[in-house]
């Protein structure tokens, strides 16, 4: 993370606007933590001629042992892309300090992938708009979950050119490797993203997909709650698959196959069929490994007879009017609330010098893919930048927070 360490820190009087290269930065307000000694957030915005203004925090930490020394960093939870913007903001601040060390001249080690077919989760928040922007509306869509080395995804994209192929993979190096191949093959019918597929499905509109492939998912025999297949996952598949759409599981784990079959039997909308040791048109890296060991391979097909009629949920992440709450005072303490399928952790409260503006830092949502967000508190409460992802777990956590704030 970009940072500099300085011997003493003298900030300009806030708010102030400073310029560097083609960036104009406004340093707005400093908020001091109620939890961590000598730790503050500096609310910063940047304006670049042809880009939308960006908002982020810089963190300031005074050394506990040597009170004169400060570490100034780009805050991880409000990080922006490209990171060079935050580096420029740090350079501006560093220019008036006695800097001891910094990494502001370092080039990013992982190249910034700005390839048009690599998408972010936020790009999918308005799916129809995304398809329209990409000129891909009215296309049939296939989704591959956990594409790994990408052999199946690339094969499908090369052999089914009129289909839009979406690939989702949580392992970033795999995604980057497949991105290179998509570029080399000049495929224009693929979108890929690095995210947890279980959460991604919740964001898709109903009846949007024709096929879903889950090939050789990690069996997680000792931690079944981490499996991709679950009742909640199949419910989402039943919602997003079109009539006559198909979910295809291919696995070398007999246990995973039986477990998925049992789950599927609970769904009346699926017509179930399965095969053993069926040849696939392409052999994935994992399949090749199991073939060498002569392992049996199981295919499970779930054909959508009638899409599940689950009403589309409209999650409202606004806050009620809260004039005061004992939760939001300088005596703030970290607290964690763990529920069956979500959690909420109140991480920190940061307060400006006048005491009329506060920032609440929370982590919340799904255990596998938690979000960390800031909530800006002045006369109203509002999520910093955009609201959380519209998932059930996030919404439950948001509601819990609202009731905690009201309760006190
Ligand atoms: C055993 S590999 C199989 C890869 C590929 N499908 C194949 O057949 O070679 C499982 C892949 O699923 C990915 N994965 C696991 N959980 C995931 C999730 N929740 N969302 C997206 N990808 C996931 C892993 O990172 C891994 O690349």
TrEMBL record:
It holds the Pfam family Methyltransf_4. GO terms for cellular component: tRNA methyltransferase complex. It comes from the Bacteria. It catalyses: guanosine(46) in tRNA + S-adenosyl-L-methionine = N(7)-methylguanosine(46) in tRNA + S-adenosyl-L-homocysteine. Keywords: Methyltransferase, S-adenosyl-L-methionine, Transferase, tRNA processing. PANTHER family: 3-DEOXY-D-MANNO-OCTULOSONIC-ACID TRANSFERASE/TRNA GUANINE-N 7 - -METHYLTRANSFERASE (PTHR23417), PENTACOTRIPEPTIDE-REPEAT REGION OF PRORP DOMAIN-CONTAINING PROTEIN (PTHR23417:SF14). GO terms for molecular function: tRNA (guanine(46)-N7)-methyltransferase activity. This is tRNA (guanine-N(7)-)-methyltransferase. Signal peptide: none annotated. It comes from Helicobacter valdiviensis. The keyword Amino-acid biosynthesis does not apply. PROSITE patterns: SAM_MT_TRMB. Substrate binds at residues 222, 252. Catalyzes the formation of N(7)-methylguanine at position 46 (m7G46) in tRNA. Belongs to the class I-like SAM-binding methyltransferase superfamily. TrmB family. InterPro entries: SAM-dependent_MTases_sf, tRNA_(Gua-N-7)_MeTrfase_Trmb, tRNA_methyltr_TrmB_bact. Pathway: tRNA modification; N(7)-methylguanine-tRNA biosynthesis. S-adenosyl-L-methionine binds at residues 144, 169, 196. Its EC number is 2.1.1.33.
């Amino acid at each position: 993370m970009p940072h500099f360490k300085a011997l003493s820190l003298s900030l300009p009087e806030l708010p102030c606007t400073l310029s560097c290269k083609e960036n104009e930065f406004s340093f707005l307000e400093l908020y001091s933590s109620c939890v961590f000694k000598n730790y503050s957030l500096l609310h910063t915005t940047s304006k670049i001629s042809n880009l939308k203004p960006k908002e982020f925090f810089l963190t300031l930490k005074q050394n506990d042992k040597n009170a004169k020394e400060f570490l100034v960093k780009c805050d991880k939870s409000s990080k922006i892309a490209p990171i060079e913007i935050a580096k420029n903001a740090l350079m501006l601040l560093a220019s008036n300090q006695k800097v001891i060390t910094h990494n502001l001249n370092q080039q990013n080690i992982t190249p910034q992938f700005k390839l048009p077919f690599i998408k972010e989760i936020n790009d999918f928040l308005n799916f129809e708009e995304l398809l329209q922007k990409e000129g891909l509306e009215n296309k049939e869509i296939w989704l591959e979950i956990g594409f790994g080395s990408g052999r199946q995804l690339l094969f499908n994209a090369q052999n089914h050119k009129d289909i839009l192929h979406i690939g989702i993979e949580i392992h970033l190096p795999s995604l980057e490797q497949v991105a290179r191949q998509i570029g080399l093959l000049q495929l224009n019918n693929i979108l890929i993203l690095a995210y947890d597929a279980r959460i991604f499905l919740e964001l898709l509109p109903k009846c949007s997909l024709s096929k879903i492939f889950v090939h050789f998912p990690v069996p997680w025999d000792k931690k079944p709650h981490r499996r991709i297949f679950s009742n909640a996952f199949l419910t989402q598949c039943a919602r997003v698959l079109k009539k006559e759409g198909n979910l295809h599981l291919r696995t070398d784990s007999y246990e995973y196959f039986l477990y998925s079959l049992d789950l599927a039997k609970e769904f009346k909308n699926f017509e179930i069929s399965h095969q053993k040791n069926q040849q696939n048109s392409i052999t994935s890296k994992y399949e090749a490994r199991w073939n060498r060991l002569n392992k049996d391979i199981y295919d499970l097909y779930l054909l959508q007879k009638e899409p599940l009629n689950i009403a589309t949920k409209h999650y409202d992440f606004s806050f009620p009017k809260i004039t005061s709450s004992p939760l939001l005072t300088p005596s703030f303490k970290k607290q964690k609330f763990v529920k069956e399928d979500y959690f909420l952790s109140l991480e920190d409260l940061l307060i400006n010098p006048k005491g009329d503006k506060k920032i609440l830092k929370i982590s919340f949502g799904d255990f596998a893919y938690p979000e960390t967000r800031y909530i800006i508190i002045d006369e109203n409460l509002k999520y910093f930048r955009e609201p959380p992802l519209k998932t059930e777990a996030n919404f439950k956590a948001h509601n819990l927070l609202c009731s905690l704030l009201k309760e006190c």
